[in-house]
Amino acid sequence: MNKSQLPPTSIDANPWSDYLTPMAIRPIITLPDPLLRQLSKPVERVDDDLRKFADDMLETMYDAPGIGLAAIQIGEPLRMLVLDVAEKDEPKNPQVFINPEIVSSSEDLFNVHEEGCLSIPEYFAEVERPAEITVKAIGLDGKEKLTKADGLLATCLQHEIDHLNGVLFIDYLSKLKRDMVIRKFKKLAKDRPPAQMVG
Ligand SMILES: [Zn+2]
Hints:
This protein has 4 helices and 7 strands. It is α+β, with helices and mostly antiparallel strands. The longest helix is centred in the C-terminal third of the chain and has 17 residues, at 175-191. Bound molecules: zinc ion (ZN).
C-alpha cells in the first residue's frame, strides 16, 4: 500500500510524513547551526517518499537560488544531494545523487573556483579542488550510476559531498579567515530572533 493511502491517524507515526505534502520549499539551515557539522547517514531505500523529498530539495535549491544542495542543508542527515550546473541560457538539468562516493580524483590537476554556500549566505572565497573526479552514486531510479565530472560540476559535487561529511568550504581557508566568517555568523545569529519565533 502506498503511504499516501494510509489513514490519517497513522501518518504521525511515519517519519517521512513531512514529504506527503506537495512539493515544498523548505528552510535552509545556516552557520552556525551544529547540524551542518553532522555526518549524514546512507539512504537505505529509494522509494516514492525519497523521490518526493528530492523534488523538495530541487525546489528549495532553485528558489534560493543555488546550483547545489545537500539534504543536511534542509535539516535531513541523509547522504543525498541535488544540483543543476546548466548555464542560464541552457535548459534546466536537475541531477540527484544518492549515497554519492568519489571513487577517483585527479592527483595533479586542480581547479580553482570561487565558491559560495546557501548555508553561509553572501560569503564567497576561492577554493582549490581536484579538477576531475569520478563519482559513484544511486539515481532516483534506484540504479547505480558513474559520473565523470570536471569544471563546475566537479567543484559542485565535491562541495556537496563535503556537506554529507560535515565539511564546509570555509574549512579549506586559513584558520584566520575561517574564524572570521564563523564569528560573523555567530554574531548575526545572536542579533536575530530564532526562525521559529518569526513564523
Ligand atoms: Zn554548501
